[in-house]
Amino acid sequence: MKKITLILGGARSGKSSHALSLAKRYKKVAFIATCQGLDKEMRQRIKLHKETRPKHWETFEEPRELATLIGKLSNSFDCILIDCLTLLVSNLILSKNTQKQIFEKIEELLLVLIKKKVRVILVSNEVGLGLVPANKLGREFRDIAGRVNQIAAQQAGQVLFMVAGLPLNIKGKLK
User: Where do the structural domains in the chain lie, given as residue ranges?
Assistant: First the structure.
């Protein structure tokens, strides 16, 4: 059985809130945040996100090397929640990784996750429903993030699409 749930949606669609509600079913949760607080407003958002998580969850902040981090995690966790793949892609692009390197890192991440005996919840932004970005970097980001979502969806046993806080089941149904 595939134990990965991928939650996709647009900005403020309820992705993270729904991921939190799913993860709250488990006792020992590893929350992996990929966001970097590079400015005051983002640091405030991070602070607010932290306040919504249960205090007993263990939080790991890792912007780029998720496979390495997860490989080092003990097997005591019931669930690993990663929020989010889109920021991971952004971080990798800004660190001058090529598309090929990014896809390899995502494949490596998914292999490490599959080997763990835990429920996995991945959060990512659906980037293909909007306008074509006006600049090259924006188009590159959209293309890579879209492909990363496809790769993750192929490995997921369940894929949910969030709209206005409501989950739409796109693939599978995990118990």
Answer: 4-171
For residue 16, the tally of other CB atoms under 10 A from its CB is: 19
Asked if 126 and 63 count as a contact pair (C-beta separation under 8 A), the reply is no
Of 113, 153, 168, nearest to 5 (Cα)? 153
- How sure is the predictor about 174, in pLDDT bands with cuts at 50, 70 and 90? low
Does the pTM surpass 0.90? The reply is: yes
Fold annotation for 4-171? Rossmann fold (3.40.50)
Query: Is the bond leading into 79 cis (omega within 30 degrees of zero)?
Result: no
Which tens digits make up the pLDDT trace of 136-169? 999 999 999 999 999 999 999 999 999 999 999 9
The set of catalytic residues is 49
